[in-house]
Structure formats: C-alpha cells, structure tokens
Write the structure tokens for this entry.
Amino acid sequence: MWHCGLELTDLAVRKIVIAGNWKMYKTQAEAQEFLRGFAPELEKTPDDREAILCVPFTALGILSQSLHGSRVRLGAQNVHWENEGAFTGEISAPMLVEIGVSYVIVGHSERRQYFGETDATVNLRLKAAQSAGLTPILCVGETKQQRDAKETESIIFAQLAQDLVDVDQKNLIVAYEPIWAIGTGDTCEAGEANRVIGLIRSRLSNPDVSIQYGGSVKPENIDEIMAQPEIDGALVGGASLQAASFARILNYKLPN
Ligand code: PEP
C-alpha cells in the first residue's frame, strides 16, 4: 500500500493516491453510468493504491450510496471554512462528512484563477477540512509565464509557506499541478515533475506526505509518471471522465 523512498536508510512510507477531478462534469445519471464501467476494473487494481473520485456536489449523495463498501473514496472539489452561516453557494466540511466524503481538493488553480481564491482562503479551507476529519488535497503550481521567468520554485515555495500555516501535515495530500499543463494536453516532463515534487517535499515538515502530479495525465503517460521516485500519485482531470481511461491510470504499470 505504500510507495517507499529510494534510500534504504529512509524509512519514509508514502501512500499512493490516484484521484479523479470531474470538475463541473456529470449529472447523477452520468456518474452512475461511469461507475457501471469503472467498478469491474477495480478488481484488477493492486491493493497499494487509494482511488478517489472528486465529483460535483450534486453527485456526492448518489455516489456515496453507490460506493458504499467499495474501495473507492469520495472527494469534493471545495469546502468553506465556516461550519455554517450566510455564505450563499458554499458547502461546509461537516456537510461533506455527513454525506460520506473523505477528501476535498483545496486551492485548485481554476478556483484561484476564476473565483478569487487566495493563499489566505486556501489556508482557512485546509484547516476547516482537517477539523472535520476530511483529508485535503492542496494544489500548488506555477503559470507558464512564471515558469518562463524561472519563478517556479519561488512561486511554489510561497504558496506552501502561506497555505500550510498551522495545517496538520499528518492529514494532507499535496498535488503539484503546473497550470500550463492543466487541460492543455501539454504534460510536464516526468523527470521535471519529479524534480519539482522533490523540492516541494524538502519544504514539508512531514516526509510522509503523499505528493501527486497533476496536469494532462492520461493512460499514455501514467506509467512513466508513476515510475518517478518522488511522485506518489496523480490528480487527473479530463482523463478521469471516462471509466476505461481512469481505470487504466489507476491500474498503472511499473517497469519490472
Ligand atoms: C485537474 O483538473 O486537476 C487536472 C490536472 O486536469 P487535466 O488532467 O485535465 O489536465
């Protein structure tokens, strides 16, 4: 169930986590149709992998019922920092927990870019998620402009420094998602993703935090990505929408 570091002296054990982010796709009926194709594929999935589906709020209830007893965990795509209140359009962590959600994506670049998410609000959401018993998946990453200006490291280090204030690193997943690779088909080269993820790990206080790569992950590149020693899983957008392609990603193969 674990991804071991390369060095024999390093006792760190990190969970392998493959998560699908459906974004604003799929009605309840479409979600159930997906499961009909996906469920049989899980029989081939090695025990060492945590499978998560982060679906729209409207599909959480039906999937919570359908996934009961399954190895697939349910995730949401956002969470508010208050338990309740006058926050029209928001969802709280206890509401997600009640419905059977275990994980929540926080700070996805689409929320930062289109909905004014800041590192300060990301920090509040992370802490609220953890307080309710959810495991947050924190997304960090740089734009193409920032990469071209050689600011990748400084941008990501600044995000981590602000997002993780008072956050419990024993209940956390980080996803490195270069923004220029999201939804573009333009994947970050596996060795480069491995390098950046190693740098992210060097900034964490807990070496056992699982760090995923996200950005145009697909069946054609998952094996190479997962062969990288620093990469503990994937956050998958477009390719998680079809049962066959997400199943192939979850059932990635390592070279012998
Ligand atoms: C994402 O939404 O987090 C993502 C990585 O999308 P895609 O796989 O489509 O690039």
